[in-house]
């Protein structure tokens, strides 16, 4: 019995006021009608469902996928090991695996281009590539044109300048960097579009598992930069996509 | 002698190739022609110039403003004490002061509305208001419709839900919070637009000058959230404006 | 128009279904009827209203008190400086000040004893007393019998044992300690009732503003201990009261 | 020769005063008679004995259980690996294993219901479940009605509101959360009963093995919340039980 | 009625067994007779009473001294400001002040030499002297021959070697150092006696208020070194004295 | 040619002044004659040689032992794995292994009792035993009477008091504790002898690999306590022995 | 078409001014002519190419080497496992492996001595040797005379003084140390040449993976010391070489 | 009686061997003859004496200067407040004050140019200037040509490139930066000379008093960079000078 039915029953006298009041109080929140509250993003048309694979067994992931398949929506799973992919491949032959990104994709319907411009993914070094790939494939799967330029860290800044045209033509930039994490600052000083900074846990010694690059990025002098969690390529790709839809 | 003049001189034979080459190499970078590089954002039309007031003397700030006034652009200065405002007011009577935000504004020309939607600034508590005000006035001065709802922290979550309509109609949201810093997570789970999280140094004990709320925000489970530096209201307002222009 | 009125109007035909639906959706959340949601604790009978004084001006606090006075409820304000009290005293002569606890109390109606047993507040040293007093007066104002034993730290453990009877007869214990913060562990090993541990920022050197005692308390081997924020006497007093009502 | 015998011997003249004095001084502390000191909680009737399994060999645990079996009391062991359970099963066939909770239970006598109300265990995400299960089974084994609602984190807050009735009817709430750890704050703002917050080490990047959620919880704006150590489900279950007996 | 009186009363039949048992259980712990428990160190003959002055008002300190004066014992107070000394001087003219050490001394009876050898206090730099002086005067007042050599840090190691004879003849060494804190390691490698390392909060930048020197000292490769809290000159002097009595 | 020979040669005219000067300058430091400098502790009679086994291969350790055997001194090696012992046993059948302590001992001559009193090793819990055993066997091998009482942590303080006589009769106490690390504070408040506090990395959650207990111990209110590095049982045993010789 | 060609074409009239301007703007940065920008260090004559091996697969490293071999330059790769060397040895038989340093070298042309003096590598302990070896072989391969003295830590300072002549004759010193990390301070106080301090992650307990030695070195009182990242032997060797060329 | 005199006395028979041996052992270390040990840097001709002014009283500084004046050497004092300079000016009229650098200089003899090339001091922002000035004046006073370019941080990288010629012509570079601290990385990637990185405590929020820029610099990907302590301009200037003399 949903909100409208309750009102109708009250109107028709099938339901007395006190029972109606009591029902309203225990009615699941989602039935009250705040559109965004009762309809979780991932169950809308066109948008993929997302599974965070870390710490889930192969069977659990397969189970979740099974339920999602019923709705016919596209599916994206992050932090998936190769072995898990091999396991799932037998069950869902249409599954695709991006090994570097550790991402699984099932395209049950054609991905609709919702991004209005180009998202550009940059990395400081080659070791940052797995995190960048997670961002890349997330953004792409969410319906964006994504371009990538890797290994353009600030310690060899001509590499960055060689790609100035691509940088200048992006609508959103994701800058992934470990070690000193200075890439977003330099890029942020060059462009007029939002830069999403992703610190990575790449590095050794006083890097302290990404703390160094995280702090660098938070303290950037350049305006227009914001930061996501260490190694959170998915978060950056998702946010970039959200901005690119605007 | 700028880039074009060099080329013309070469063409006309007034300049030999080697001298031209040498000139090109020593030519200030800004004359070479990468649009974004040689034209710093702040000197473009319509955009205000920004001064970071912390650690500058009254005289230094007055000096910088003087130079900026010559260009006729709008001027925004952050982290300005009341005494500094009083000092500057005597020199530039058109100056405006937002006391809570500690922001100075000089509007030499009418602010052009460049933002396409509404930016919403939320705070968890009343103590977060100064940082939120910095974000608010920054975004407004950069040409946006900005709305604010303060003191809607998660420990009294009905206050947040009372404002659901405003939250749902924003194009970009700035969520400012100290203490446990959970506001952006809850908001991020409700909306489909970018949420810029601003941790504040409000709190005591194990807050450790904002570290607690910073970590909370970086670790948010909600997608579409990114974080700026502790107490960095300006950065949030600037980024929100940049996104809202897209 | 509240929830019941809407239902009645629907029943009586004064309100059509769609308008009712729309009203329900925009009705302030507190009107929907989740008892705890729409009725904030502090506006209930008997319970004092609480103001967190830190970072508020004298005028702001006076303003908040003014509104609260209208409801006739009791008022508790924490983190109040002596000067603020002097200022408020002129406006509200019935105001009382606990100087050590930095707490202001206004008793508009007699405090009802809601606590079923005795709450005991212990401190490790004399420097922890201000935090303990905040806990003491909070719990007392919330309707509890509260007893206090100060300076019974573990480095002179006979002092603690001299008070064994009082310790054994408490229903809830608040153990406040800085420095090494070991008091809750020893007490927790002796009693069978909940121990609320409050680390204080008392100490020097490697105390790091209470971090040392906070970590000690979190790592306690004794069962039945939980921890509130550093110097958070109010939080401990409030929680102790909540438990003592059960 | 215990305390009473000494006194009797003195009275009967079999023991002179000085010898009696000397005996009293060297008498084991537990014989002096402070009820709570010489009788450790776990040896009382009805209460289970608890073993902390981490870092103990299978043989050691079996040895401890053997001694406990002699007393006929119920036995609870935490942090037990599956292999250890398999080993112990052969020796004590009546042993039960809660795999998610990693808890072993031996019920030598019927568990007596000592809790007066319901304890509710909540988690923010699915990854927090093992810690929550440790709390659940601990509280249940200690004689409480326990209910659990998992995966109701604040980033999808309608899930929490769908369970409002259960939340409102609990006498003590255990809120388990990793990542941003905001669940206890939201819950604490809704209810009037004690909330025990358990940070988990779930998360990545700037979670720093639970530090992020620990700090969030300590800094909660909601009153009535206290915190136990990271991943300390047992501690939360034990404390909840202690409160629920009051 | 103390322990002996109870026994006598029992023997004489003035007290029945059960009443005696009950009295024993509630008797203050200090009367039971564990020498070290019921007689706190500071109330023994010859030993000075110690007051930790930090955070106490002038009046409080005067009050504590007053009580101590009655017992006629020597009095030592640490962390005493010059103004406090001036205040106390008027009340107790026999008071002495060591300004650098911020220590007050009252010698009600002649200090007895209890130390068997020489205690040597070393500092790395001149800025460490106040902490060293606190150690020096504490050890001296506790009845030891104390010698001091200041500014012999490892960055000019010949200064240390110039004092080799004194270093070799000490029975206990206190090594006080800020900045890199390496002095105890070098000294510990030269001598065969206990070295008490005192980190100081002297330094700037990455010293982090003494953390740097604290960690250095804890990690010393030399054997025979132990560490007290940052800036804890008193603790080092006290421990050195305790060892020197052996 | 040592220092004396140079002087004799000069005296006899076999060596001219300048050559002698030059020789003196390049003479290995150990020949100059500062007793402590040129004679490293470990090569003296009666004292065992010590090897820190961590990070050394079996072959390296065997090689070091071989050299030491030639001098006929006793040998102690710490942090030795069982496999290493098995390997060494074949080469040096007289080798002994203390498995819990992970210590190897070779007794080439009878250990001389140099300690004047008893050293007592305490632990808070059973998990601290390996570190305590390292301290125990180190002190014993260095010629001391050592006694041990394990699992007497402050959360069940009667266990500690049951051993008061042993505690009171020790000349030096080593208190080993993980978790909250409060044992040294309580013990230090009871005795008049030096207490060496050893934090262990035992614990979980906010213990942060021993940081919690380290800070607790550094911040102890009790006098006469000093701290060695986390898990450094050897250092504690060595220092205790050094003090006990005095 | 490079910069010169553009100018020539303009001069000859084959290219109009606007097209030339446009070409200049998109011309890769390296063609503009800032010597240092467009010519990366590693592609110059005589200098080896450097590969950072960590996190690269055997195939990736082989691929990079293949490209480098074509240029005929010398090749240095750091952080290379033994297995990787075995793999590469089959492909490039001229490859050399320094096992302790985990460095691979290919000498396609004779190394030219570019260093003007001697570089000296010191370590505090034997565990620091792998890091020191990385520095040693890096500096040697870059064309320097390098000498090494290991295990001369400050806890046995005579070992250091025994090598005073070598220390005094170095032009640049690399001091590698873990644990307390005091070696650079002592050495820096003795010499008049630059000292490059390398903290290592050697140690246990409160060493915190090198943080302790890092902070020690940063806080050194001696002048002329600077610090590289924890365990960064390569960085130290490279910088020493750069200085030694001056 | 110095080393040579002892030898002569022995030769002449005025001193017997044993007395000579004893004298040698107690002879101040500096007389033994290790050139660098017995002659501290600062007492050599030409080199200025350096005073670290922090934490010294005006009188102490005046006293130290008085002694130094007697030797006629040049004097440099750092961390000197304006008031101290005013005080000293009256005593030593030849004293010079660099206000921004907070440095005092007394030039008793002409500064000799010992630097072989140019030292360049860069800053990221204007707030870093005081630290940079300390480096600048230190290096200049030590006999170097020093040039400075301020406010060329990476967030506006064209400013850096506009000064490429100066950057390319330096022999040693000091790069001073707060906030994200990325300047040394970018510069280090452009040049072939040593870069000394100086983190400053400039910034707010997650800068944590320079920790952010310190970590950034330690983690730099560029080779040839080393780091000094936060705000340690003097250390950078001194080291740069030491390198520039080579």
Class computed from helices, strands and strand pairing of chain A: alpha/beta
**Biggest interface, residues from each chain:** C-D, 38 and 38 residues
Instruction: Give the number of domains of chain A.
Output: 2
- Profile the largest sheet of chain A: 5 strands, parallel
Total of DSSP H or I helical runs spanning 4+ residues of chain A: 11
Measured as a percent range, the helix fraction of chain A is: 25-40%
Strand order of the largest sheet of chain A: 6-5-7-8-9
What is the end-to-end distance of chain A? 37 Å
- The H/E string of chain A reads HHHEHEHEEEHEHHEHEHEH
Protein name (chains A, B, C, D, E, F, G, H): 1-(5-phosphoribosyl)-5-amino-4-imidazole-carboxylate (AIR) carboxylase
GO molecular function (chains A, B, C, D, E, F, G, H): hydrolase activity
Domain PurE (chains A, B, C, D, E, F, G, H): 117-246
GO biological process, one term (chains A, B, C, D, E, F, G, H): 'de novo' IMP biosynthetic process
Descriptive report:
- 8 copies of one chain form a homooctamer.
- Chain A is of the alpha/beta class.
- Chain A is built from 11 helices and 9 strands.
- Chain A has a 5-stranded parallel beta sheet with strand order 6-5-7-8-9, sandwiched between helices.
- In chain A, α1 (3-11) runs antiparallel to α2 (17-26) and α6 (129-141) packs parallel to α11 (233-245).
- Chain A starts with a helix and ends with a helix.
- Mean pLDDT of chain A is 83; it is low at 26-46.
- The interface between B and C is medium-sized, with 13 and 19 residues.
């Amino acid at each position: 019995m949903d909100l409208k039915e309750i009102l109708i029953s009250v109107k028709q006298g099938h339901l007395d006021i006190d029972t109606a009041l009591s029902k309203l109080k225990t009615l699941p929140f989602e039935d009250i009608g705040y559109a965004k509250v009762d309809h979780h993003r991932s169950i809308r048309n066109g948008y993929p469902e997302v599974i965070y694979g870390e710490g889930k067994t192969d069977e659990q992931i397969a189970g979740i996928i099974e339920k999602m398949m019923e709705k016919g929506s596209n599916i994206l799973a992050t932090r998936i090991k190769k072995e898990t992919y091999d396991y799932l491949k037998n069950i869902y032959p249409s599954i695709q695996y991006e090994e570097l990104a550790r991402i699984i994709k099932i395209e049950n319907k054609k991905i609709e281009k919702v991004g209005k411009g180009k998202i550009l993914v940059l990395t400081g070094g080659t070791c940052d590539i797995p995190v960048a790939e997670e961002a890349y494939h997330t953004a792409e799967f969410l319906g964006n044109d994504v371009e990538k330029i890797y290994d353009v860290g600030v310690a060899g800044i001509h590499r960055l300048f060689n790609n100035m045209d691509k940088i200048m033509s992006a609508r959103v930039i994701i800058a992934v960097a470990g070690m000193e994490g200075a890439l977003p600052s330099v890029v942020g000083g060059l462009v007029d579009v939002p830069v999403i900074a992703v610190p990575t846990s790449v590095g050794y010694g006083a890097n302290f598992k990404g703390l160094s690059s995280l702090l660098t990025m938070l303290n950037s002098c350049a305006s227009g930069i914001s930061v996501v969690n260490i190694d959170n390529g998915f978060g950056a790709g998702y946010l970039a996509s959200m901005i690119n839809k605007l």
